[in-house]
């Protein structure tokens, strides 16, 4: 049986409109030849291919840049009354499973997805969640990756909706929006007006019930609503609050 693999990830790049730090310094074959020749105590012309060596890069990168998986410790120091797990402690079984796409591409920036919205989206596709499904929130805002206001254009998950998914046995979730919650400036404005409950409600739900989510996915619009396998394993960063991942959908 043949398999079709769809890349669901966004790239790390210089001059990105992602607000998280990312910078790539490219070192070409000729610069590396001079660096390595100096380190090895030889002349560049003495290398097997004179004056040329392997290319390389130096990268300065936030763990929350690009397509990445948030660990429970990102949401707070504890989860379910225990020390919150870091990204290197996440069960890998959570990262590979049956994918389910719920379409909220019709929602506007700043709208909060509630429990009723989830239930109606599931009814539309005639699907019942089972434990360890991986639920993907489709907003289509990945298409704004090259817009200066990309981080301001997505709807977000609310506290009750996030907790409801966890209660259905879901441990891994994801979105193709910039963030899991609504845009940060909108939440900050609500906080300044005295509404503390509006500040990162989806994230902070992870303090009460343990889960992970993936942010900045892409191409969820190319997937069926279910009947495919989702896979995204985080880079093993010791004691980190997040890890970059290459997310893919595998369709038979």
From TrEMBL:
Enzyme Commission numbers on file: 3.5.-.-
Enzyme kind, highest EC tier: hydrolase
Keyword Metal-binding listed: no
Superkingdom of source: Bacteria
SUPFAM superfamilies xref list: Putative cyclase
GO function term, MF aspect, one: hydrolase activity
Assigned keywords, A-Z: Hydrolase
Gene3D superfamilies: Putative cyclase
Pfam family, any one: Cyclase
Protein name (record): Cyclase family protein
């Amino acid at each position: 049986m043949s398999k079709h693999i769809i890349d669901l990830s966004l790239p790390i790049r210089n001059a990105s409109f992602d607000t998280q730090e990312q910078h790539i310094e490219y070192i070409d074959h000729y610069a590396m030849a001079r660096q390595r020749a100096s380190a090895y105590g030889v002349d560049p012309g003495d290398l097997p291919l004179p004056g040329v060596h392997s290319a390389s890069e130096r990268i300065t990168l936030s763990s929350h840049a690009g397509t990445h998986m948030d660990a429970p410790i990102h949401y707070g120091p504890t989860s379910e009354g225990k020390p919150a797990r870091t990204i290197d402690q996440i069960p890998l079984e959570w990262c590979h499973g049956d994918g389910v796409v719920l379409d909220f591409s019709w929602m506007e920036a700043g709208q909060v997805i509630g429990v009723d919205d989830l239930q109606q989206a599931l009814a539309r596709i005639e699907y019942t969640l089972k434990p360890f499904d991986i639920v993907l929130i489709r907003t289509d805002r990945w298409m704004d990756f090259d817009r200066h206001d990309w981080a301001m254009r997505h709807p977000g998950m609310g506290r009750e909706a996030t907790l409801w998914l966890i209660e259905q046995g879901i441990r891994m979730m994801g979105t193709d929006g910039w963030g899991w919650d609504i845009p940060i400036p909108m939440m900050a404005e609500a906080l300044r007006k005295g509404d503390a409950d509006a500040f990162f409600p989806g994230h902070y739900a992870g303090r009460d019930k343990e889960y992970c989510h993936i942010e900045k996915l892409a191409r969820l619009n190319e997937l069926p609503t279910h009947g495919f396998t989702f896979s995204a394993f985080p880079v093993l960063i010791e004691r980190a609050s997040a890890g970059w991942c290459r997310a893919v959908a595998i369709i038979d």
